[in-house]
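User: Second chain of the day. Same drill as before.
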Amino acid sequence: MKERGRPKCPRRVEHTPEVVYFKPRGVPLCELEVVALAVEELEALRLVDIEGLTQEDAAYQMGISRRSFWEDLQSARKKVAIALTTGKAIEIAGGNYVSTKEHT
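Assistant: Same format as last time:
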């Protein structure tokens, strides 16, 4: 299926996760449906829900428009809510981002 509209701009991401799977306890991963959460969606959640930034400030930090940020945030929240309420695993992987984390 062909993408419509403009290509998605890479998001600037400061924190990439070390843990990339979360799942309900007591159920093997191979028996679970998996919800895929993109790295930039996780970053949107982190900036607003943990760091307490406004959506405008978070969008600026990620180098995208407020609208694009809002769409990423809404998508992330919906995916997490679906996984938590239906007992699915969450995989954090992929996406369209560039890491801004400095390696020392």
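The first strand starts at residue 11 and ends at 13.

User: Great, on to the next one.
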